[in-house]
Amino acid sequence: MKTPLKIRRADDRFHSNYGWLNAYHSFSFAGHDHPDHRGYQSLRVINQDTIAPGQGFGTHPHHSMEIFTYIISGELHHQDSMGNGRTIRAGEFQYMSAGSGVEHSEFNPSPETPTELLQIWILPNLRGGNPRYQDFDLPSHTAGRALTPVASPDGREGSIEIRANATVHYGHLDTGSSLEARAEIQSSWLQLITGSLEIGGEKITPGDGVGIDGSLPEIMALRESTFFLFSF
Question: Which of 19, 72, 91, 221 sits a CA distance of 20 to 30 A from 140?
Fold first, then answer.
């Protein structure tokens, strides 16, 4: 039996453009709402943001949310009320658990180059708790692997331990290679960053998201591809 796919095409995403921020929202966000696009399982937000040089998000609060940032290109400077402050660069991955409450700011430190990133929010399994922050050296951790857990409820295989019943995998496939079907993954969302994939006979291009209700089918790379796979 063919696994049902729910495809959210890049061009169909919600769009917000504030001049300094150009954002595409896979799910309902920032005044955009549709009952068919209010997240997938505990995955609540996937925003693809482009931040203009020298611009960013001023200090603002969050609570009870697991927040991840992946830098596609450029740099992003992070500062928070826990005392963390650093610049994360292309290919790097950042985790912040808002817990009972945290404030942070994020801005593009370059005077010339835009920053492109994915902002991902996952609902925690319990509200509150002390806020947490962790950087993750994604390139070295995932090198040479087709699919790597980078965040999980139990911190397996060196991944970040998070407060959610979800696992975040980073995928990298060379042209013509494939990821075998996995029956142990029974509900998932794939978000393609770069390249081109074929899943269940459907061609997936950058910015597309795919909800997979059932076991994970074979994934074939039509071109070298990178992606996030969220399993629940």
Answer: 221
